[in-house]
Amino acid sequence: LCLLAGLSLAAVNERQEIVGVCINTINYRRESSTGPPESGEDECAHPKFKIILKFLKWLDKKNDIFSKFNINKYLDISILSTDSAYRGQGIAKKLVYESM
Questions:
Q1: Which of 32, 37, 45, 65 is the most buried (most CB within 10 A)?
Q2: What is the pLDDT of residue 84?
């Protein structure tokens, strides 16, 4: 879902291998509901990723970002990861910068 929105990024090396990823979504305040944004957990077929989505949904429910900062939408960096062979090179920092 978030990949289709064109918000997520991947860093690749000279052989076009993925060495870092930044999975991003935009979360909007939902006026008609008091709950957190939809997580996609119900539609997710991969059991391990479903656990991650469930945890992220719990975090959203625990922290009402919209009320806390009086905003209607925000960029959510759900997953940020770098291949261990490429760590310490600023790849994650660059992915976050490019996401903004």
A1: 37
A2: 97
Chain centre to alpha carbon of residue 33: 22
Model confidence over 12-43: pLDDT tens digits? Answer: 999 999 999 999 988 888 765 544 445 555 56
Q: Given CATH 3.40.50.720, say whether it is the number of domain 9-99.
A: no
Count of residues in the chain: 100
What DSSP letter does each residue of the chain carry, written as one string? -TTTTT--EEEE-TT--EEEEEEEEEEE--TT-SSPPP-SGGG---HHHHHHHHHHHHHHHHS-HHHHHT-SEEEEEEEEEE-GGGTTSSHHHHHHHHH-
